[in-house]
Description:
The protein has helices at residues 12-20, 30-40, 49-57, 61-82, 85-89, 91-94, 103-113. By secondary structure, it is mainly alpha-helical. The mean pLDDT is 76.
Amino acid sequence: xxxxxxxxxxxxxxxxxxxxxxxxxxxxxxxxxxxxxxxxxxxxxxxxxxxxxxxxxxxxxxxxxxxxxxxxxxxxxxxxxxxxxxxxxxxxxxxxxxxxxxxxxxxxxxxxxxxx
Length: 116
């Protein structure tokens, strides 16, 4: 990749400069200094319940999506059980989309009575 021009030809001048580049070696105390800095970092404190929950929930989009779907399903089930069946039967009078001659109205009639 290095040492080539736009047309794909080798740039000999650049190649020569790259060959002359001095190799650098870390100093004699480099490794000791790295380990000293690693040991200087304080140990992590145990997370509280709120931090644990946040760490578990936020970085995992699949878990977050499952939680949202679960909550929506629970709300839908509670709403379906809480609304009396008598309140659902006359719904097509209030909504034009639920009229018996529409697709949604036919589905509503089938689900409530078993036939259109």
